[in-house]
Amino acid sequence: MKAVLQRVSSADLVIDNNLFSSIKNGLVVLLGVEENDDENDVSILSEKVVNLRIFEDENEKMNNSLLQTNGEIMIVSNFTLCADCKKGRRPSFVKSEKPEKAKPLYEQFINSVKKLGVKKVAFGVFGADMQISLTNDGPVTIIIDSKDLKRK
Description:
The strands form two sheets. Strands 1, 2, 3, 6, 7 and 8 form a six-stranded mixed β-sheet that branches. The protein has a two-stranded antiparallel sheet with strand order 4-5. The chain has three helices and eight strands. The model has no long low-confidence stretch (mean pLDDT 96). 22% of the residues lie in helices and 38% in strands. The longest helix is centred in the last third of the chain and has 17 residues, at 99-115. Helix 1 crosses helix 2. It is α/β, with parallel strands linked by helices. It starts with a strand and ends with a helix.
């Protein structure tokens, strides 16, 4: 499971020209589900995301987490994060999990973040054509792969 985290001061998600969800200070998380991802990936990644210390403290050091700052989060499904660009010029998406398996894991990730204590959890619609407008704060952008977090 791959995630791109962007620290934002605001973000809006639009579907069919209608505002679907929005957040203020917090994170936009683009989430890609790969083949063989499971509940363990959801647990490891969601815990890392909400506790990653990438928000400034009173000394302007990145020392606080989303939970510590009472930040908001927007989670958006994004199968293109699983693209393989090693050969040719057209990305291959064969490593992306099939929708019928990816959607429940995406929904579990949303629920896990809620259970971990994030007060406002916004999200998109799995598989929908979405437009996201955001104001990146920093900019701070982090890429995380759950496979890199698993204990061996």
